[in-house]
Write a structure and sequence with these properties.
Rossmann fold; 7-stranded mixed beta sheet; alpha/beta; globular
Length: about 230
């Protein structure tokens, strides 16, 4: 137990050192108490599980969490799912490799399936939708639930910005929808994907596959998700 605790403390110290270096390299003040603008702070919660992370996230506009990797135990899927289900806030899921562009959200792709989860994600991300150079509503057949069509969503979004586009793609059911979404994002040049998380249950997606499960393992573009 002592060895495990020592290793955990060492990991925390390394993480804080790297985070402080990141803040310094990007001109972000650390713990200065500034009322406006970005600032950095480092917090350790000993003995806390994923639920504690989700509880902390409730006080913030958005939480950035790394996408789980098949070749590494961190970032953990349990932490990401806790944020999605228990924080009540949007999560920016970062891919293992940083995107090529210096600016995030120039081309925003909304993966619309008619569900409440994606509707909530759109509401959270509206400032990014308004600031983007291009916004595309993407629908994929076989992954829709009862709700407004893609055309209906586009008509509403065009009240905010008239240039919103609609793109419709085909897929062979829910299990293939994630791959179809990711391929379309690449073809459209999207650098930010908006998608609701787990329209169908986690258990059903674990057994039968689903778009969220596929994207949380394979997406190479940043995603904003909410449940």
């Amino acid at each position: 137990m002592a060895g495990f605790e020592r290793e955990a403390r060492e990991r925390a110290m390394r993480a804080e050192t790297e985070f402080r270096a990141f803040c310094e390299a990007h001109g972000v003040p650390f713990d200065d108490g500034a009322a406006e603008g970005p600032s950095g702070s480092f917090r350790i919660e000993e003995g806390a599980g994923p639920g504690a992370l989700a509880a902390i996230a409730r006080a913030f506009d958005v939480t950035v969490q790394g996408r789980p990797r098949q070749d590494s135990p961190v970032p953990a899927m349990s932490a990401l799912e806790a944020l999605l289900f228990e924080s009540g806030r949007p999560v920016l899921v970062a891919p293992p490799e940083p995107p090529a562009g210096e600016v995030l959200g120039e081309t925003v792709v909304i993966a619309w399936n008619g569900g409440t989860e994606t509707a909530r994600t759109i509401a959270f991300a509206m400032p990014l939708i308004l600031a983007a150079k291009r916004v595309v509503v993407l629908t994929v057949s076989g992954a829709f639930v009862p709700g407004p069509s893609g055309a209906e969503l586009v008509a509403r979004l065009r009240r905010h910005r008239p240039d919103v586009e609609l793109v419709e793609r085909e897929s062979e059911g829910r299990a293939a929808a994630g791959a179809a979404i990711l391929q379309a994002v690449h073809e459209l040049g999207g650098d930010l994907l908006l998608k609701g998380a787990y329209t169908t249950s986690r258990l059903r997606q674990l057994i039968f596959g689903g778009a969220t499960s596929f994207l949380l393992v394979n997406a190479d573009v940043p995603m904003i998700m909410a449940n």
